[in-house]
């Protein structure tokens, strides 16, 4: 099995502060990590759930994929991140299985991770992020 566990479930939100407040009030969740990923034009807040995260994400500029997603589809589930031991190996295996990569090769992600995205059209309708710690 190339997937080691679920790294995160990403939820696109319009107002990151309000979303954090909701999770704090509803679940008692606390932000474990917060970061602006300039390359992708997003800000994230990671809420730890067991060994995984709920990732609340919002766009920080107009050309951000998340800003575009929110304008087109609104708030809600954006993608699922799977933790892997070797991002390049799993990306290669997924492409060999017929998946459509968004990233041709792994690249730096948040928290010092290495990531690669798979397009929903080649992954049963789900945007997938491969995450190597």
CATH first level:
Alpha Beta
Distance between the ends? 17 Å
- State the order of secondary-structure elements, H for helix, E for strand: EHEEEHEHEEE
The CATH architecture assignment turns out to be Roll
Integer average pLDDT: 96
Let me know the number of strands. Answer: 8
What is the makeup of the main sheet? 8 strands, mixed
Contiguous uncertain segments of 5+ residues: none
Rg, nearest Å: 14 Å
Amount of beta strand:
35-45%
Instruction: Sum up the overall morphology in one term.
Output: globular
Overall structural domain count: 1
Assembly type of the shown chains? single chain
By secondary-structure content and strand pairing, the structural class works out as alpha+beta
Write the CATH fold name. 2,3-Dihydroxybiphenyl 1,2-Dioxygenase, domain 1
| The CATH fourth-level homologous superfamily | 2,3-Dihydroxybiphenyl 1,2-Dioxygenase, domain 1
Number of helices: 3
Helix proportion range = 10-25%
Strand order, sheet with most strands: 2-3-4-1-5-8-7-6
What does this structure look like?
The protein has a single domain (3-132), classed as 2,3-Dihydroxybiphenyl 1,2-Dioxygenase, domain 1 (Roll). The chain has three helices and eight strands. It has helices spanning 16-27, 65-73, 87-96; strands at residues 3-12, 31-37, 42-49, 52-59, 76-84, 107-108, 114-118, 128-132. It has an eight-stranded mixed beta sheet with strand order 2-3-4-1-5-8-7-6. β6 (107-108) and β7 form a beta hairpin. The longest helix is centred in the N-terminal third of the chain and has 12 residues, at 16-27. The radius of gyration is 14 Å and the shape is globular. The mean pLDDT is 96.
